[in-house]
Amino acid sequence: MIREPSAVHPLITIGITCFNAHETIDRAVKSALAQEWPNLEVLVVDDCSRDDSRARVERAAAAHTRLRLIKHAENLGPGAARQTLLDHAAGEFLAFFDDDDESAPGRVAAQVGRITEYEERAGTRLIACYASGERRYPNGYRLVVDAIGSAPRVPAGPQVADYLLFNRRARGVCYGGGTPSCALMARVDTFRAVGGFDPAFRRSEDVDFAVRLALLGGHFVGCPERLYVQYATQAPDKNAARNFDAEMRLLEKHRAYLEGRRRYHFARDWFTVRFHHFNHERARMLAALARAWIGHPILVTRQMLTTVPARIRHERRMSKEAR
């Protein structure tokens, strides 16, 4: 039974997309049901898992009336799964939890409070709220992920589109860890005003949503508290080639905007450099970097100076053997 909405505690929908997550889905569902919010529904979309994930959620749903399982008959990918959650959400707000993450009990309450406080101050409802958190790697390395908009200067509008599409950062603006769906909450009518999630995206569906929200003038606020733990897990769909395909789809979808900003070719070239780097193709990466620098010397130099040193430090810590 879904509890009746109230003015003090509106109904919140927590949405979890699930695919082959039998080792982690129980933990994710447990953290959703443990939220300190009295008016809550938890929806899990199983995207045609091939393991026992669906059976695990079915057992949990039999014991918890606030939990409901929605089954995809075929694997459609994260974009379609998130749209299914949006289509079935009965709450005023929708928060996404990932199937391999764990959220703190106060996450929902903190994000509702941040959204409503900002609405009153800024006079807009086109708001996406992100939680700060921590990413944990198998070797014990932990990375603090500060939420976008969790410091005083909140990014809004094209500032966020420029950051996501070609990494342009306005001075003094808090971009934090970007716009991951695992940390996202917004009003359901905000998601729908933007057009929801594009089912064509099997990766980067969250970035595409954020770009469209930004181009509508949306605001991106964050909670400074660490409200979730993201466990760095491996899966067949988490690879450099699939990420690159999604990034190219993203650039093509927003090509008109990028060409208007004179950044389309630079963005393609830089994403190509990143792909060869993440795919461990050093010679191809250096060749792509040289081509990119010849075409965009100032932009590539700026990108190298602002992003590469931090990336190298991060990758060294990720690859360090566990003690």
What is the fold's blueprint, element by element?
Blueprint: E1 12-18, H1 25-33, E2 40-46, H2 53-63, E3 67-71, H3 78-88, E4 93-98, E5 101-103, H4 107-122, E6 127-136, E7 142-145, H5 158-166, E8 184-187, H6 188-194, H7 205-215, E9 219-231, H8 240-253, H9 255-260, H10 264-278, H11 282-295, H12 297-319
Parallel strand pairs: 1-2, 1-4, 2-3, 6-9
Antiparallel strand pairs: 4-8, 5-9, 6-7, 6-8
Describe the structure.
The chain has 323 residues and is an alpha/beta fold. The chain folds into 2 domains: 12-231, Spore Coat Polysaccharide Biosynthesis Protein SpsA, Chain A (Alpha-Beta Complex); 240-319. It has 12 helices and 9 strands. The protein has helices at 25-33, 53-63, 78-88, 107-122, 158-166, 188-194, 205-215, 240-253, 255-260, 264-278, 282-295, 297-319; strands at residues 12-18, 40-46, 67-71, 93-98, 101-103, 127-136, 142-145, 184-187, 219-231. Strands 1, 2, 3, 4, 5, 6, 7, 8 and 9 form a 9-stranded mixed beta sheet that branches. The radius of gyration is 20 Å and the shape is globular. Mean pLDDT is 92; it is low at 1-5.
